[in-house]
Amino acid sequence: xxxxxxxxxxxxxxxxxxxxxxxxxxxxxxxxxxxxxxxxxxxxxxxxxxxxxxxxxxxxxxxxxxxxxxxxxxxxxxxxxxxxxxxxxxxxxxxxxxxxxxxxxxxxxxxxxxxxxxxxxxxxxxxxxxxxxxxxxxxxxxxxxxxxxxxxxxxxxxxxxxxxxxxxxxxxxxxxxxxxxxxxxxxxxxxxxxxxxxxxxxxxxxxxxxxxxxxxxxxxxxxxxxxxxxxxxxxxxxxxxxxxxxxxxxxxxxxxxxxxxxxxxxxxxxxxxxxxxxxxxxxxxxxxxxxxxxxxxxxxxxxxxxxxxxxxxxxxxxxxxxxxxxxxxxxxxxxxxxxxxxxxxxxxxxxxxxxxxxxxxxxxxxxxx
Length: 369
Description:
With 369 residues, this protein is α/β, with parallel strands linked by helices. The chain contains 13 helices and 7 strands. It is elongated, with a radius of gyration of 36 Å.
């Protein structure tokens, strides 16, 4: 079996551009200010626009640029501030062009002002709509991020607690049972030497204790698969198949592929838990009698596949409507940046396929020479 050290290719974090980052920081800063203070810069820009409009005269129309301070006021302070700046912009435009406008009557000039105020109000409404949509999108993204963080915390706490229970079982209860088993063996030997009829009962007690030790160790290994960290994912999956097969009587095979040593122990643990849940589903809900676990490396993709000959995915899903198994599997695959598929082959049963992008470590090739 080829041993390969892999590192999971997690999705790269997204970074805003410098301009977008500056705009975001400025917006956050201005929205924390009082409305009058956040509207001060748009007001000064409006006055400057009026001065420039007066200097350039009627022939060079600048009225469309009055929208810039209005947009800033709405974006930073809301629709109220935007309407206020729009009113100021109309007045400034009136004063800037009052002496050289081409209208023969004041009524015509006032009608032109009304048209521009309508345009400014449309700008306010449009920007406010965009701002509300962006605020709603940001709130939804924050909710999703908080939910994702909560799911991560729940899984982490659950994993930590399982490991603690597994260690306590292995280092505490198993050791006590083993010591009791030794004492029972000594007692049985003494009773056999004395030719006492109770020696047979003592031997039965010792056998029962040894069986309890074995079951407790299997339970501890299922809760805390230490081999994931120490000996690679393939070894841990082999242990999973052996223990589950012994406890349930279901034939479980691990196909020979690669011995993958993922650098991140958490990634190995997620893949192990996905396989463990898929096997448990096949046994409990799918009624499978034969399960095959395979781990293969195809290019830069680590492929974990669990196939069974049970009743298929529809029956399994129906039995898991209220369960969290499938959701937890999907969460673990998303946390890894992997894809997870539940397929129903034409031959029957269920095929669970988890594909994780990985990168081989360059020093592995030297180690193999």
